[in-house]
Amino acid sequence: MPSPPPAELVQRLTQHDQQHLLDSWDKLNPSEREVFLAQLSALDFAEIGSLLAETGTTSADEKPEARARRAAQPRKLVRLPNSPQEMAERHEASRQGEQLLADGKVGIILVAGGQGSRLGFDHPKGMFPIGPVSDNTLFQLLIEQAVARSRRAGVTIPYYVMTSDATHDETIEFFGQHEYFGLDESAVRFFRQGNMPAVDAGTGRLLLAAPGRLAISPDGHGGMLAALQQAQLLDDMRERGVEYLYYHQVDNPTAVVCDPVFLGFHVAHGSEMSTKVIAKRSAEERMGVVVDVDGQTQIIEYSDMPDDVAAMTDDSGELLHWAGSTAIHVFNRELLERLTGGELALPFHVAHKQVEFIDRDGQLQQPKEPNAYKFERFIFDALTHARGALVLEADRAAEFSPVKNASGADSPETSRRDMMALHAGWLRQAGATLPEGADVEISPLYALDADELQGKISAGTEFDGPVNLRE
């Protein structure tokens, strides 16, 4: 006769009106029960109940749309250089950033929890081949930057990779197969993003994806804080002497990893969190926008920005809310520690979504309309807790060409095109000649930037056909 569920668990579930979760208990084998018990034991039912209560009430917090109408341009903002003085300031920031790297004070956080499903790729997105000539993966292109940056600084830069349940094991295996792409294995730490359960919007009951398995989804990139704490990686950072964390996402192969200019400005301005932005192409571009509300720097999601506010312009006809978020940040480690210390916490955001589930008869239901609430945290909400938050403008052509869609904008095609245009520009800047439209790729291990390339390519060098410069 199957053993009953633990009495304490039954009591907890009954207290929170979630006893339906045990309807299929008798059908589970011992190993399935063990996994299910671990899943249920990790849940904070009081927190879930509180979040659910907020979905059905008029919260005292200001609605995002109302906040957007009071938004202004960020005040603490460094635009792209437009004068000799601004160029000199940028060079000084770069010098300071290089020193921070050489002093071993910088670590990297790579967010790599996403699957390549939208690209028709059934693996972690970081494994997607994107090199326009080499066909190297997103992981390799970004990690080679970190390796090159470490060599230039003369130190090993600690590398923290946030995965998810869907990508964790395969990501670790992939790194091992490729000998960590040249990274010092002892400096790499993988940590797994947390999850939140999906809740039926009508009943408030948690949904099951299968007997003995909750319907769950990742808790958002803001879940990074709890995941770092759980893996004791904030302690690891402190022990390694890391004071600043350079954060970026795996889907942008043109991101400048550990940009010394960004690091230098971050420290020079006394910021606890800085964020990079680019000028939006249009009011309709689907990007979060960095703004100030009541003197507080924050990011408003594109879905929360009313169309008329997004289209507002200044006296020169330029977009008022032009500063599109690139999801590239620098954090002080002390800010992350403060946000995980219990006194402060990032808020959960609620999304009404379609979620498949099994009903009480064990039948799979596939709703055609939103039926459940999902909860996630956004790391950019840390801006509102950061002292002296800084916004730095980046050049879109050089630093932002993400791979998000299978075709059209922000696709592999556009990202490869932009990488080739960038690298062809570096070659021409060095005095080389090559055919228009030539396929070009320059590994970060060969040259991190145009200045480094100039020291390796003689003026007048002619290239014919595909160019793939590697170490």
Explain the overall architecture:
The protein has two domains: 63-404, Spore Coat Polysaccharide Biosynthesis Protein SpsA, Chain A (Alpha-Beta Complex), CATH 3.90.550.10; 405-471, no CATH class. Helices cover 31% and strands 19% of the residues. The protein has helices spanning 7-15, 30-41, 45-55, 64-69, 84-102, 138-153, 168-177, 224-230, 233-240, 260-268, 307-310, 333-339, 396-399, 412-429, 450-454, and strands spanning 77-78, 106-111, 159-163, 188-192, 195-197, 199-200, 208-210, 213-214, 216-218, 244-249, 273-279, 289-293, 296-300, 323-332, 348-353, 357-358, 364-365, 372-377, 390-393, 440-442, 467-469. An eight-stranded mixed β-sheet has the order 1-19-11-14-10-2-3-4, sandwiched between helices. The termini are far apart. The mean pLDDT is 95.
List the helices and strands and how they pair.
Elements: H1 7-15, H2 30-41, H3 45-55, H4 64-69, E1 77-78, H5 84-102, E2 106-111, H6 138-153, E3 159-163, H7 168-177, E4 188-192, E5 195-197, E6 199-200, E7 208-210, E8 213-214, E9 216-218, H8 224-230, H9 233-240, E10 244-249, H10 260-268, E11 273-279, E12 289-293, E13 296-300, H11 307-310, E14 323-332, H12 333-339, E15 348-353, E16 357-358, E17 364-365, E18 372-377, E19 390-393, H13 396-399, H14 412-429, E20 440-442, H15 450-454, E21 467-469
Parallel strand pairs: 1-19, 2-3, 2-10, 3-4, 11-19, 20-21
Antiparallel strand pairs: 5-9, 6-18, 7-8, 10-14, 11-14, 12-13, 15-18, 16-17
Helix pairs in contact: 5-6, 5-10
